[in-house]
Design a protein that fits this description.
Mean pLDDT: 90
CATH class of the domain at 10-19 and 40-197 and 257-301: Alpha Beta
Strand content: 25-35%
Distance between the termini: 28 Å
Radius of gyration: 29 Å
Length: 665
């Protein structure tokens, strides 16, 4: 229950735009043998295997503003680690690593299994020397990206930075590179690729540029598109202080835009292709060339599930139950699963398939739940029940899923049917909390199907469905200040949202949101850092509440709301933890839960909702609380699974009570 989606797009600009010394004609005083290409196109001067010779010691001089730029490298590795969410023990391949700047920076940050591969022996010697001098454990290997010298499924993540893609004359070689990356990644391993923004370059590339380097060195670059407009071809002249041409070479890079690269990645077997970042490099006194505007894409190596028998010989079998993307879902925008849902599932699979000691099978076809679970129940170690969409994507049938598992005698994570049924009724939870001496807002119910409003209401008030989660039905108009606004909000729920159930009208608590998340089962539990909502980015005039838009529509004004650690006095924190733990036990929550509170102006927190089986997605409240606690997404999922194992072991229920210790890769 209760996920927040935020599309992961990181934007960055490096350097400060400034006037450069641009060449628009042949500069005076250059050597006589420096001539324009004449009638021959640059493409006609191109050696198809230019990439095998150009990356040498001179490259580190002409492109030193990139290749030797420590500040830029640190910034790019910040983006890499944030986008990929990699862990210290992950096996990472830095493909086309050059002089190893990203590999070495990752190793400096404690990543222990980094491998750099490049074709240039000269650049690799530089990389090895730097790593040795700093005492860093990085393995560097020479090889061709079209035929990677690694077994299948070796890496958790592959990065390809520095616009190192599209060098080969044959466009099929680009596809071969991507297929090799797909091969060496484990199932749902991540691939981050950095390419020049082809659409931008076709419009805005510099046809002629000059820059003066140290020791009087002059670098002149002449550029043109090939006859099909698919490759940007560059002639680079390097002239020393004595007016001698020391290098005259031509190279070309195939241009990709968002659509063409996405298509190619999908042809290679990747899924969940996402534009994760846009980067710009604009130094004050250097020619940025193709590095000026870049696109960073992340994707996942989708691989078919193995056809091995479902037994425990390859690790304890865990069946992961999910919502069904084949059928409508009334809670989601547009009533259907979308790209954000695909991304959430890709992140989930990436995280779970990095845990050793288990074999995970993912089941999202609800028409096959009964058949599959019945046929394999003697082999199933645990069911990871992440089907918070409800059976048939009906949120009112969320409790039906654990009820089915109970009837089949299967062990599963999370709350049972009684708890889920009870907590789906917001007013019932408030009555129980009140009976325990836990403060709740004043509230009243409008009966099912009725639009008659209560005669006495404490304004301002919040109007929301009594049976719903994920903030469904809540808009900025749900906060009402008088009887007329209340009638309008009730009418909107009945007509625009089509909700026929009871409507909850509760006194609006004007104060901090406070979210308490618990993983484990008291007393063997972990209370995560308490979060609050940062509404500072919300335009004036909009109420400070978590609306449906805040959780589902990242491009709306409410998409700017962020969950951050709450700074509260220790006495208040202790009180919230005590009440949340009491509710966890009283309501029958298991393994993980979340409790939402609001702090009144009188300094008293009041319970808004209890959320058993809260949203499991990579960008939800629970995940963010775990992040502030120092847990990765993978660790969060493992802790939920381990909590269920401990619970069954202690109660001696289910088929087998032994606890298996898993390790995160």
């Amino acid at each position: 229950m209760g996920a927040i989606r935020h599309r992961r797009l990181i934007s960055g600009i490096w350097g400060v735009p400034a006037a450069r010394n641009r060449l628009v004609r042949k500069p005076p005083g250059l050597p006589a043998d420096v001539r324009p290409a004449g009638n021959r196109t640059l493409a006609e001067k191109l050696d198809p295997e230019w990439w095998a010779r150009i990356f040498d010691g001179l490259y580190l001089v002409t492109d030193g503003d990139i290749a030797l730029n420590e500040s830029l490298t640190r910034y790019e590795v910040d983006v890499i680690t944030e986008v990929l969410g990699i862990e210290r023990d992950d096996a990472i391949l830095d493909l086309c690593c050059g002089n190893g700047r990203h590999s070495i920076e990752l190793a400096r940050r404690g990543y222990r299994n980094v491998v750099g591969l490049d074709y240039s022996g000269e650049l690799l010697r530089v990389a090895r020397k730097r790593a040795e001098e700093e005492g860093l454990r990085v393995r560097f290997k020479q090889g061709d990206a079209r035929n990677l010298p690694f077994p299948s499924g070796t890496f958790d993540a592959v990065i390809m930075m520095g616009n190192s893609f599209g060098y080969f004359a044959d466009p099929l070689d680009d596809l071969r590179v991507l297929r090799e990356v797909h091969r060496v990644l484990r199932p749902y391993g991540k691939f981050l690729i950095d390419v020049a923004d082809g659409e931008y370059l076709r419009r805005s590339f510099e046809r002629l540029s000059v820059e003066r380097l140290h020791d009087g060195l002059l670098v002149i670059r002449e550029r043109e598109l090939d006859e099909h407009g698919r490759r940007l071809v560059t002639r680079e002249l390097v002239i020393d202080g004595g007016q001698q041409v020391i290098a005259d070479r031509v190279y070309a890079v195939r241009l990709y835009d968002r659509s063409s690269l996405r298509t190619l990645l999908m042809r290679a077997g990747f899924t969940g292709v996402l534009l994760a970042s846009r980067l710009r490099y604009e130094p004050a006194d250097r020619d940025p060339g193709m590095m000026k505007s870049r696109l960073l894409f992340v994707s996942y190596a989708e691989k078919p599930e193995t056809r091995e028998p479902l037994n425990g010989r390859n690790g304890n079998l865990v069946v992961v139950l999910l919502g069904d993307p084949r059928i409508p879902n009334p809670v989601k925008p547009g009533g259907l699963f979308d790209d954000d849902d695909e991304l959430a599932v890709c992140e989930l699979k990436h995280a779970l398939l990095g845990i050793r000691g288990y074999r995970f099978v993912f089941l999202d076809d609800h028409s096959k739940f009964v058949e599959f679970l019945s046929a394999n129940r003697t082999s199933i170690h645990m069911v990871l029940n992440l089907c918070d969409d409800g059976f048939g994507n009906d949120p009112s049938m969320e409790a039906h899923v654990p009820a089915l598992l109970e009837m089949l005698g299967l062990r599963y994570t999370g709350a049972g049917p009684r708890c889920l049924t009870l907590c789906y009724d917001k007013s019932a939870v408030k009555l129980i909390a009140s009976s325990m001496g836990i403060p709740v807002p004043w509230h009243a119910l409008i009966p099912e199907g009725s639009e008659e409003v209560p005669s006495s209401v404490r304004y301002p008030a919040l109007v929301k469905p009594n049976f719903a989660d994920n903030s469904w039905g809540i808009t900025e108009r749900s906060l009402v200040r008088n009887r007329e606004e209340l009638r309008a909000a009730v009418r909107e729920l009945r007509t625009s949202w089509g909700y026929r159930g009871p409507i909850l009208v509760e006194e609006y608590v004007d104060g901090m949101d406070l979210t308490v998340s618990i993983v484990g089962n008291p007393p063997d539990d972990v209370v995560l850092p308490i979060l609050t909502e940062d509404y500072s980015g919300l335009p004036d005039g909009l109420p400070r509440i978590l609306t449906y838009a805040a959780k589902w529509l990242p491009d709306s004004p409410y998409g700017r709301v962020r969950s951050v650690p709450a700074e509260v006095p220790e006495q208040l924190r202790a009180q919230l933890v005590r009440w949340s733990r009491s509710l966890f036990v009283r309501l029958g929550c298991r393994d993980y839960a979340r409790f939402d509170w609001r702090l009144g102006r009188d300094g008293v927190p009041r319970l808004l909702e209890a959320n058993p089986n809260p949203g499991w997605v990579w960008d939800g409240h629970l995940r963010r609380a775990c992040q502030y606690h120092g847990w990765s997404y993978r660790r969060m999922l493992l802790e939920i699974l381990a909590a269920a194992e401990r619970r069954y072991a202690s109660s001696q229920q289910g088929h087998g009570a032994s606890r298996v210790t898993a390790r995160v890769r």
